[in-house]
Amino acid sequence: MSDTSLWRLSAAETAARTTSGDITAEAAIGASIDRMEAVNPRLNAVVESLADEARARARALDKARASGAPCGPLHGVPVTIKINVDQTGHATSNGVTAFKDLIAPGDAPIVDNLHAAGAVVIGRTNTPEFSFRADTDNPLFGRTHNPWGDHISSGGSTGGGGAAVMAGIGALAHGNDIGGSLRFPSAANGAVTVKPGLGRVPAYNPSQTGERGILAQAMSVQGLITRSARDLHLSMPTAITPDPRDPFHIPLPWRGAPLEGPITVGFTKETYEFDLHPEVSLALDAARDALNDAGYNVVEIDPPLLRDAGMEGYRALMGEVLALMGPDIRAHGSDTVQAIFDEYFRQFAPYEGLELMQMMAKRTHYARVWSLFLEEYPLVIAPFLPQPFFAPDRDTEGAEGVREVLGSALWSYAMNFMGLPAACVPTRLADLPNGPQPINVQIIARRWREDLAVDACIAIEDRLGQMCDPLWAQMEKHGA
Question: 56 near 127, Cβ under 8 Å?
């Protein structure tokens, strides 16, 4: 492989080669920066290039290795960081013009952990205003485009990270997820992720002036997006490294105890009142068949209380958002995002007062029901969205637009409300009238068993391939 194509390497391949001395960190990072500079002008995925400091850090890593210093597990791996977490000396704008000069005085735990493992941050990626849309556009930096084409949204809120990693800008992309913000962009771009469960990855922004609401603390998690499922096993042990600034972090190892015998996997195509698209149905079939072929025991299930958990959970979150974020959205949000929030509040009528307290308490009921259910079915294959991923700005198109984008995502935000791990993996490339696009499915796991979900993603990927391969072939055909 030539130095100019080193950007194609997975995180695991990059770390192995930089650690062995087969290639230098400077070469790996240089190739990724060159790729960023070649494709990012069209995508607008990275909105702050850190090329100069990344090259300097790569040279320092090479010098340390040459002097005999041990290499971290992500030695020389290029990564991107989402602009809603703190990175020393850089703005944590969260896509909001009023926050463009909010310079971080220190690093968030996820940034510290990646640095300590030897990763190199090459840029910061785009997010919608307040990181609260499933599409990525904002008045400060503009729209992030999907590398598959402008017929598909790049997803959100980690749209910049999802587009970047699939286009070859870094092997890993940091993101976070309060209702689907790791999984939406993975589904949009054909990437792989696992939304960690509650308490798995430490979180804190040194720039913050107050604490987040209790539901935001319970539902929001930090994570990583990649194009190779195996890279999650490499990188997530770094992400979960404890940090005392998060007092509720759970310091468990990444790998849990092996399960005896073939793992039983629940399988469902249930989408409730939303129509299941034939391509999504085929993608679910592909995941089922791949896991059966890999030795899993896949059986049909009737998922308990999923719709109730999703809708009541999101209405509770909207109640907290209305009370705690509402003033900032009104003061600093664009007309576009204010209209979208107005529709959120119509479709997910916010619980307030006593009702909000009751629904926050009821969260434990749903989590308990699913905890018992997952004793019998340690993994569950389910839809992520009932339809192929939507077009850009779909959520600006009134009630029907918001219903398609977020209303139908019951399988997404229910997992946040219950704090369960949920992976998202592509299993089909659909040939649709507006152009090709990936279709992802969701794999839900027992609490604390993100590793089982990633194992299943690897089994699927081994049989169906990585979605970056047809994407890069398409991009090369069009001169990227």
Answer: no
Residue 123: give the domain boundaries: 3-477
Record the tokens describing residue 371, joined without a space.
Answer: 């905890």
Active site residue 181: yes
Taking Cα atoms as reference points, which of 65, 84, 68, 67 lies closest to residue 76?
65
**In the chain, how many domains are there?**
1
pLDDT digits (tens, 9 = 90+) for 14-49: 999 999 999 999 999 999 999 999 999 999 999 999
| Contact between residue 111 and residue 105 where contact means Cβ atoms under 8 Å apart | no
Does 82 qualify as catalytic in the annotation?
yes
Place of tokens 């190199």: 120
Catalytic: which of 32, 131, 157, 228?
157
Q: Report yes or no on whether pTM surpasses 0.70.
A: yes
Instruction: Report the CATH number that the domain containing residue 184 is assigned in CATH.
Output: 3.90.1300.10
DSSP 134: S
Beta-carbon contacts of residue 224 (< 8 Å; ≥ 6 apart): 172, 173, 174, 175, 193, 231, 232, 235, 236, 239
For 435: left if phi > 0, alpha if psi spans -120 to 50, otherwise beta; the answer is left
SS3 145: strand
Of 10, 32, 82, 195, which is the active-site residue?
Answer: 82
CB 52 within 8 A of CB 95: no
Catalytic residue among 154, 181, 186, 228: 181
Has 32 been annotated as catalytic? no
Phi, psi of 271 (to 5 degrees): -130, 15
